[in-house]
Amino acid sequence: MSSPNFIPSASSEVRVSSLYSDQILQARSWFYTVQFVGKRIIDFCGAGLGVVLLSPLLLTIALLIRLDSKGPIFFRQYRMGRGEKTFVIWKFRTMEVNAEEKLKELEQLNESEGGVLFKMKEDPRITRVGKFLRRTSLDELPQLFNVLQGSMSLVGPRPLQLRDYYLAMNDYRENMLQRAAMLPGVTGLWQVSGRSEVTFKDMLQMDLLYQNNWCLWLDIRILWQTVLVVLSRKGAY
Question: Can you give the residue range of the structural domain that contains 227?
Answer without folding.
Answer: 10-232
